[in-house]
Amino acid sequence: MRNKTARKLPEKLLHGADYNPEQWLDCPEILEEDIKLMKKAGINCVSLGIFSWSQLELDDGRYSFEWMEDIIEKLYQNHIYTILATPTGAIPPWLSAAHEEVLQVNEYGVRNYAGNRHNFCPGSPVMRRKMRAIDSKLSQKFGQHPGVIAWHISNEYGGNGRAADCHCPYCQEEFRKWLQEKYGTLENLNKAWWTTFWSHSYTDWSQIHSPSERGENVLHGLKLDWKRFVSHQLLDFAKEEIAAVREYSDRPVTTNMMGFFKPLNYFEWGKEFDFISWDNYPDWHSEENEFRVAAEAAAAHSLMRGLKKAPFLMMESTPSMVNWRPVNTLKRPGMHSLSSLQAIAHGSDSVQYFQWRKSRGSCEKFHGAAVDHKNGENTRVFGDVCEVGKRLRNISEYVWGTCSHAKIAMIFDWENWWAVEDVCGVEKLDYKNLFCKYFYPFWEMGVNVDIQNMEGDFSDYQIIIAPYNYMYQKGYADKIREFVKNGGCYVTTCWSGEADDTDLCFLQAHPLRDVLGIRTEETDACGAAWDNQVSYCGVSYQVTGLRGIIHRETAEVKAYYEKDFYKGFPALTRNAYGKGCAYYIAAETEIAFLKKFYQNLLEEEGAGAGFAGKLPEGVTVSCRNDEKKKLWFLQNYNRREAVVILYKKYFDIELQKDVEGTIEMQPFSCDILLEEPGS
Ligand code: GLA
Ligand code: ZN
User: Fold this and answer.
1) Which of 102, 209, 372, 667 is the most buried (most CB within 10 A)?
2) CB within 8 A of 186, min separation 6: which ones?
């Protein structure tokens, strides 16, 4: 089945949930109530069959699809679509009992027992065969059903809470083959991994073993390639699942990703799926205010949007609480609507939940769900879900078909993530947290940002922000040079451009020395005992992390260190290059510095938020647009009311009226304002 045009979702916002009715097959009254309540809550789709393998294949080759047929049919009659899952997220005990090889082997060489989820070896031929059989049977049976709108391939690949990798003999062999293809000769591999150091040179491919605490765990090149291989191998498994469902079905395929999930390079993964979807569980109410958590959720949504530069589905979220953190706080009134609309604001075309109805037993019985164990529809949470359903229905015709279009891109690169956190030297860095820190002031100012990796197409952007790009992918430096030459503005930080894509250090100079107009020399990591500040625009800002020691060549010095043996050295530089310019932030500082710097940068580049209003602290805005209109999602993350001053007239699409002057926003609320051209 190769009909690309059919691979589209319905043209409306979706409101749905993971539906796991196999738990209730002996309670017909519950299944009936489900449909009644779904209609009440404005649910128009469910994700079905995610963990149904043992109910679909009762024993090796003994399939049982009738129950699922009934459910899909009943949902369809009630105008509820099905997003049908392949069931490989959890494997039935009969499978591993008959074929031990389907179970993962950990880095200590110990094979796991059956149980949990994502416990399978992606290299096992038996696992592949059984997966193909169930997937293609499901597709043959349901792949053309008018109620089935998409495929949910497996579930949160790699997400078993332990490790995403398998170290069994099959996987070792596959890894070696993958390396042979990549390097051709052992000589190339030895050079790339710098194996002469500590006498590690390999003389036969069979000597190579996956990294392990029990064995080799210091060879950075090996560890980096293993991470690449693990992501690639699991994706290869996913591709085989996609091929299996495509035998009989032209429905679009997705898999539910996990945002900033380190083991899988989602930029590579995104290419293989028709649309992106992901599971969003911010830790609301865990800090003194919601701002940092909200900004991190915004970054994760933007990352997921960036994989295809297109809208995505928020495949899971909780209407109340999760149950897997040490402390699981209920969403406060308003927060469910706000966090749902935040997803929409950043590019989601859906709000979906895990799960529709709380399980009665097992490990997720206390995880939030639309329907509780008790009280039927008479719960606060069900009321919140109904409210979201109503709002999505009302705004759908405005929102569907729009997307965010940013002028600023931030670089987030998975391979860099693996490399920069593995490095021995300077300081253990938390790349994701550092990245989110550089994202934060944009979120606060209501400036849309796209997130791309180093392979992205940068031609649409005016500004690129690249924090801690320790490792440069092949061709990256040249691409940035062109970007700046043609008028782009590039911002990077210390601890960037240190190593190439096999983690070999660059010799002679920083690969962008000419573009940055500086010479980098040392990097200092030290604690509070070596207190330091940088002086920028007449204000002193605290240094909080790494301190790059650099020398000005052609760049201008915009900020400098106030203390230590590098007192007076540049802490921020700007270099004019071609038609553009490049900034280098040498010192990691408190966030106030970044805010000030971004404000100046946006002013200089004429790239402000575009929203005509004044946002108080904790209120932000995010834009989706098409050629005809802009939609501004104003979001108040304060635990109290907030007042936004508008500099022009907007139209509130839910109240269906013009708004001007000021808007009083309720605590945890979102207002959606329409701006028409020329208004
Ligand atoms: C993940 C899984 C779900 C469920 C939720 C709980 O997102 O995909 O099956 O376990 O976590 O938060
Ligand atoms: Zn394996």
Assistant:
1) 102
2) 202, 203, 204, 205
pLDDT at 4: 47
Atom of ligand 1 nearest to the CA of 322: 12
Give alpha helix (H) positions in 583-653.
591-605
314: nearest Cα among 337, 286, 281: 281
Q: Can you give the pLDDT at residue 100?
A: 97
Q: What is the pLDDT of residues 352-395, one digit of tens each?
A: 999 999 999 999 999 999 999 999 999 999 999 999 999 999 99
Residues of the chain with CATH 2.60.40.1180: 613-675
> Band of the pLDDT at 3, cuts 50, 70, 90?
very low
* Domain 613-675 indexed as CATH 2.60.40.10: no
Whole-structure pTM value: 0.97
Instruction: Out of 174, 241, 296, 316, pick the active-site residue.
Output: 316
- Edge-to-edge order in the sheet of strand 630-636: 619-625, 630-636, 669-675, 650-652, 657-659
Give the pLDDT score at 164.
Answer: 78
Residue 66 structure tokens: 């009738």
Tell me whether residue 316 is one of the annotated catalytic residues.
yes
Whether residue 488 contacts residue 458, with contact meaning beta carbons closer than 8 Å, is answered with yes
Name the segment(s) of the chain with CATH classification 3.40.50.880: 408-605
Q: What percent of the chain has pLDDT over 90?
A: 95
DSSP-assigned states of every residue in 647-664: SS-EEETTTTEEE-SEEE
Pocket around ligand 1 at a 6 A CB cut-off: 155-156, 279, 281, 316, 322, 354, 364, 367
Residue 576: pLDDT band by 50, 70, 90 thresholds?
A: very high
From residue 660, how far is each of 644, 648, 652, 653 by CA, in Å? 10, 6, 10, 14
3-state SS class at 220? helix
User: Burial code of 587-616, b = ≥16 C-beta within 10 A, e = fewer?
Assistant: bbbebebbbbbbeebbeebebebebebebe
Task: Band the pLDDT of 528: cuts 50, 70, 90.
Answer: confident
Whole-number CA gyration radius for the chain: 26
> What is the pLDDT, as a whole number, of residue 679?
63
**Can you tell me the distance from the alpha carbon of 596 to that of 527, in angstroms, rounded to the nearest whole number?**
24
Range 408-605 classified under CATH 3.40.50.880? yes
